[in-house]
C-alpha cells in the first residue's frame, strides 16, 4: 500500500522553532488549527463531535479519552493493596523466570490490567459491603483502584537490568553480592530514573503534546471498563468479543500452524532451495531473513509495530527506513563489505575468524583483564555484517535524535528550562486532563530530588561493597548525567510519536573508551548510562497514565515506589534461586529446552567485546570504527530537512514534505530488521494505513470509539493465550510439547518454508 498523497501529508511544525509545540502536531491535514477543543466531562461521548476527523496526533488524548473525574472515588483500599502487592509479586517472579527461558516473553501491562479487573470485580461482588465489611469493600471496583494496581504491578513486572547485571557477575565472574546489597542496588538503579522523571513532568507529562500514543489504548480500555452509559456498555461488549476472538485464534499460528506467523509466497515457491531468497524474503524463524513481502496473521508479532496506535507519520517514517534497509543490508552482504560472506547472514553473537563462536573468556586473565598473548593467539572477534550495519544505524539514530529535538523543540526546551519551569507547577499548560488534576495535591519536586540523590548515593555505595569498585563513583555520576540529558531527547520523541530509540550501543562504546580493558565496568555502565534513561521513560508513561485516569499524583508516587520495592525483592530472590540451581545450563551457549542464559550471555559478550577490546575494535581505523563514529555522523541527518522546511515558502509542498521526515526513526529502522523474526511488518503496513489513514479520515466516529479499544482487546487476548501456551506447551513449566509435523509445521524447513533445518 502506498503512502497517502502529498496533499494529505502531515506537518510536523508550522512556524519557527520558537513556537514549536504551540501548534499541534498534525497527522496529515494541512490546516493549522489553533482552537482548543471543548473539554466536557463526556467529551468522548459527544455525538456532535463523532464525525469530526482527528487532524492532529495529540488530539486523540482529547477526542478519544474522557476527562471525567470523580474525586470521591477511593484509591487506597484493601482491594488495591491486596491485588497490587499480589500481582506485583506474581509479575516480578514470572518476568524473572522468563529472563532465563529460551522463549522471549514478557509480562505486559495489559495482562496485569485484565487480571486485576477480573479479580477486582470479583472481590467487589463476593466480599460483603455492610457494616465493618465496608472497609474491605467500599463499593464497586473503580478506575482509580484499577489504575493504581496496574501501575504497581507493571512497575514490578519490568525486569530490572540491575538484576541481569548481578546475575552476569555471579555466572561469569564468580562475584556474588550479598542479598541486601543486590536488592538495594536493583531498587536504587530504578529509582534514579524515577527521580529524573519527576523533574521532567512540566515538559513530558503535563502538556497535551506529550500524549504517549501507545498508552491511549490502555486508558481507553480502563475508561470503557469503568465508566457507565450505553456507549461504554457497547464498548465493553465489543472489547470482550474481540478479546475472545483473538484468544481463540492466536493459538493456531502460535502452535499447530506456525506458517501463519510468516506467510511468504516467494518462500513457499522456493521451498528452501536458495540462500539469497531466504536472506531477503525469509522471516518465520529467528535470524532467518529480513522478511520482504512476508505477511503475518499472529497478533503477538503484529503488535510489535503498533499499527493501530502509532500516528501515521511515525509509521510511514519507520516503513521508509525498512525499505532502505532491504537495499542496504543486501548490498552490504553480497558486496562482501566487512568480509560479510565469511560469516552467517544474521546473528548478534561474536565470531572468531573462522566463523565459529568466539570464546571471550579465552583472552582474559584471572582478574578479567586482557592477556595480550592470549589475544594474539585467539584473535579479535567479529560481528556479522548485518549486525554491524544495525549498530551503526542505531547510533545514527541517536545522533539524529539529539539534533532533531534541539531543532524542532527548542522553543519548548527554552521555555521549560530557561524559566526553571521543571522545578515548579506548569501554570501555562492548558491540557484538559492536567486541568482536572489541579484539584489534587501535587508531589513536591523535592520528593523526586530526594529520591534521585538518595538512590544515587546508594548505587555508588553498593558499587564499593566487594572491596574493589565495580564501577568508580565518578563514572556513575558521569553516566547518570548522560542519562538525564538523553532522557529529555528520548522522552520528547517517545511522548509525541510513540517511538522509542535505542542508546545501548552508543553508551557501551563510550564506556569502552572511558574504561578500557575493564569488562565489568562496561557492564555496569549499561545500568547507569542506558537503563536509567529508559527507566525514566517508563516512569513518565506511568505518570501520564495517572493523569489520564485522574489518579491523585501522590497515589501514583506511592504505588510506583511500592511496585519497585516488591519487584526488587522478588527479582533478586527468584534470580539467585535459578542461578544457583541451573548454573551449568545458564553457562552453556545453547542451554536446554527448559533453561537458557542467552540474555545474561549477551551482557557478558558485549561487555567483553567493548570493555576488554573497545580500542582494538572501535578506535579510528580499527575494524568497526564506523559504529562509534556513526553517532557524530547522525548529528547531521535532520539539518537539511529542517533548513528546507525553515526557509521554504510556508505552506508549500516542499516545506511540508521536509517537516514530515523524522530522521531518527528512519535511521533506526534501516538497521531494525536483522533481529529475530520479521514476518509481521507488511501486515503492519496494511493495518496501519487502514486504521490511521482510512478509518481515521473516512470513519472518524468508529475510529474514536473503537480503534484504540480494538488494539487493547487484541493485545490482551493474544497475551493471555501466549501466557497459557508458554506453560502448557512451550516449556515454561519444564515440559515442552511439540506439535506433530505437517505441511504447515514442517520438520525439515523453517516455519515459512524458506530455510532448510537440521530437523
Question: Could you characterize what this model shows?
Answer:
By secondary structure, the protein is mainly α. Helices cover 58% and strands 0% of the residues. The protein has helices at residues 60-63, 78-99, 109-126, 143-157, 161-173, 179-199, 201-204, 213-226, 230-254, 265-270, 275-281, 299-302, 312-334, 372-378, 385-408, 410-418, 432-437, 445-462, 473-497, 504-514, 519-549, 553-581, 583-587, 598-612, 614-618, 625-634, 638-647, 653-660, 663-670, 681-698, 700-728. It is globular and about 75 Å long. The two termini are 37 Å apart.
Distance between the termini: 37 Å
| Average pLDDT, all residues | 84
Number of helices: 31
Main sheet, how many strands, which sense, barrel?
none
Shape: globular
* Uncertain residue ranges: 1-47
- Computed over alpha carbons, the radius of gyration is 25 Å
Secondary structure class reads mainly alpha
Report the strand count. Answer: 0
Task: Kindly estimate the percentage of residues that lie in beta strands according to DSSP.
Answer: under 5%
Q: Which percent range fits the helix content?
A: 55-70%
Short description:
The protein is 58% helix and 0% strand. It is built from 31 helices and no strands.
What attributes characterize this protein structure?
single chain; 759 residues; mainly alpha; 31 helices; 0% strand; globular; disordered N terminus; peptide transport; transport
Amino acid at each position: 500500500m502506498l503512502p497517502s498523497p502529498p496533499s494529505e501529508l502531515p506537518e510536523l511544525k508550522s512556524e519557527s522553532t520558537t513556537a514549536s509545540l504551540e501548534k499541534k502536531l498534525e497527522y496529515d491535514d494541512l490546516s493549522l488549527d489553533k482552537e482548543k477543543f471543548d473539554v466536557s466531562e463526556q467529551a468522548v461521548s459527544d455525538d456532535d463531535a463523532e464525525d469530526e476527523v482527528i487532524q492532529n496526533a495529540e488530539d486523540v488524548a482529547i477526542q478519544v479519552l474522557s476527562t471525567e473525574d470523580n474525586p470521591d472515588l477511593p484509591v487506597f483500599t484493601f482491594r488495591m493493596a491486596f491485588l497490587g502487592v499480589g500481582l506485583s509479586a506474581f509479575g516480578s517472579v514470572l518476568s524473572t523466570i522468563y529472563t532465563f527461558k529460551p522463549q522471549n516473553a514478557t509480562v505486559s501491562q495489559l495482562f496485569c490490567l485484565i487480571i486485576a479487573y477480573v479479580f477486582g470485580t470479583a472481590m467487589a461482588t463476593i466480599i460483603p459491603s455492610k457494616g465493618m465489611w465496608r472497609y474491605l469493600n467500599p463499593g464497586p471496583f473503580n478506575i482509580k483502584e484499577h489504575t493504581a494496581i496496574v501501575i504497581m504491578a507493571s512497575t514490578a513486572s519490568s525486569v530490572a537490568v540491575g538484576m541481569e547485571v548481578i546475575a552476569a557477575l555471579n555466572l561469569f565472574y564468580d562475584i556474588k553480592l550479598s542479598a541486601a546489597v543486590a536488592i538495594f542496588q536493583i531498587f536504587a538503579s530504578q529509582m534514579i530514573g524515577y527521580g529524573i522523571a519527576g523533574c521532567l513532568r512540566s515538559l513530558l507529562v503535563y502538556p497535551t503534546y506529550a500524549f504517549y500514543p501507545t498508552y491511549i489504548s490502555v486508558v481507553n480500555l480502563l475508561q470503557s471498563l469503568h465508566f457507565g452509559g450505553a456507549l461504554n456498555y457497547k464498548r465493553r461488549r465489543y472489547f470482550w468479543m474481540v478479546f475472545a476472538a483473538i484468544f481463540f485464534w492466536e493459538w493456531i499460528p502460535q502452535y499447530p500452524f506456525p506458517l501463519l506467523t510468516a506467510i511468504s509466497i516467494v518462500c513457499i515457491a522456493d521451498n528452501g532451495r536458495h540462500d539469497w531468497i531466504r536472506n531477503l524474503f525469509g522471516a518465520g524463524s529467528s535470524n532467518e531473513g529480513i522478511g520482504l513481502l512476508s505477511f503475518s496473521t499472529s497478533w503477538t508479532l503484529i503488535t510489535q509495530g503498533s499499527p493501530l496506535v502509532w500516528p501515521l507519520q511515525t509509521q510511514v517514517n519507520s516503513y521508509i527506513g525498512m525499505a532502505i534497509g532491504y537495499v542496504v543490508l543486501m548490498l552490504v552482504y553480497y558486496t562482501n563489505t566487512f568480509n560479510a560472506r565469511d560469516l552467517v547472514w544474521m546473528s548478534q553473537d561474536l565470531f572468531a575468524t573462522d566463523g565459529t563462536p568466539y570464546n571471550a573468556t579465552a583472552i582474559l586473565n584471572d582478574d578479567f583483564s586482557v592477556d595480550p598473548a592470549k589475544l594474539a593467539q585467539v584473535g579479535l572477534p567479529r560481528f556479522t555484517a548485518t549486525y554491524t550495519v544495525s549498530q551503526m544505524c542505531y547510533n545514527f539514530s541517536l545522533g539524529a535524535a539529539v539534533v532533531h529535538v534541539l531543532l524542532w523543540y527548542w522553543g519548548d526546551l527554552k521555555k521549560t528550562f530557561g524559566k526553571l519551569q521543571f522545578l515548579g507547577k506548569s501554570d501555562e499548560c492548558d491540557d484538559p486532563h492536567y486541568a482536572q488534576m489541579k484539584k489534587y495535591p501535587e508531589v513536591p519536586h523535592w520528593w523526586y530530588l530526594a529520591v534521585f540523590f538518595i538512590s544515587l548515593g546508594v548505587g555508588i555505595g553498593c558499587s564499593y561493597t566487594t572491596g574493589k569498585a565495580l564501577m568508580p563513583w565518578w563514572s556513575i555520576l558521569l553516566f547518570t548525567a548522560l542519562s538525564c540529558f538523553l532522557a529529555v531527547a528520548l522522552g520528547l520523541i517517545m511522548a509525541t510519536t510513540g517511538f522509542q530509540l535505542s542508546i545501548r550501543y552508543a553508551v557501551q562504546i563510550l564506556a569502552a573508551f572511558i574504561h578500557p580493558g575493564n569488562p565489568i565496568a562496561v557492564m555496569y555502565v549499561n545500568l547507569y548510562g542506558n537503563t536509567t534513561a529508559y527507566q525514566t521513560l517508563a516512569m513518565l508513561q506511568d505518570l501520564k497514565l495517572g493523569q489520564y485516569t485522574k489518579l491523585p499524583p501522590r497515589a501514583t508516587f506511592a504505588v510506583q515506589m511500592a511496585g519497585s520495592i516488591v519487584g526488587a525483592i522478588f527479582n533478586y530472590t527468584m534470580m539467585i534461586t535459578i542461578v544457583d540451581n541451573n548454573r551449568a545450563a545458564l553457562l552453556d551457549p545453547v542451554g536446554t529446552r527448559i533453561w537458557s542464559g542467552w540474555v545474561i550471555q549477551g551482557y557478558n559478550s558485549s561487555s567483553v567485546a567493548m570493555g576488554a577490546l573497545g580500542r582494538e575494535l572501535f578506535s579510528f581505523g580499527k575494524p568497526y570504527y564506523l559504529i562509534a563514529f556513526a553517532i557524530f555522523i547522525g548529528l547531521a541527518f535532520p539539518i537539511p530537512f529542517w533548513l528546507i522546511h525553515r526557509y521554504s515558502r510556508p505552506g508549500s509542498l516542499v516545506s511540508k514534505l521536509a517537516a514530515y521526515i523524522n530522521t531518527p526513526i528512519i535511521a533506526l529502522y534501516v538497521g531494525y530488521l536483522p533481529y529475530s523474526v520479521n514476518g509481521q511488518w507488511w501486515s503492519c503496513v496494511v493495518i496501519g494505513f487502514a486504521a490511521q489513514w482510512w478509518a481515521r479520515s473516512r470513519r472518524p466516529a468508529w475510529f474514536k470509539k473503537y480503534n484504540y479499544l480494538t488494539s487493547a482487546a487484541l493485545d490482551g487476548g493474544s497475551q493471555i493465550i501466549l501466557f497459557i501456551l508458554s506453560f502448557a506447551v512451550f516449556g515454561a513449566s519444564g515440559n515442552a510439547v511439540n506439535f506433530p509435523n505437517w505441511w504447515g509445521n514442517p520438520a525439515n524447513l523453517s516455519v515459512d518454508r524458506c530455510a532448510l533445518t537440521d530437523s
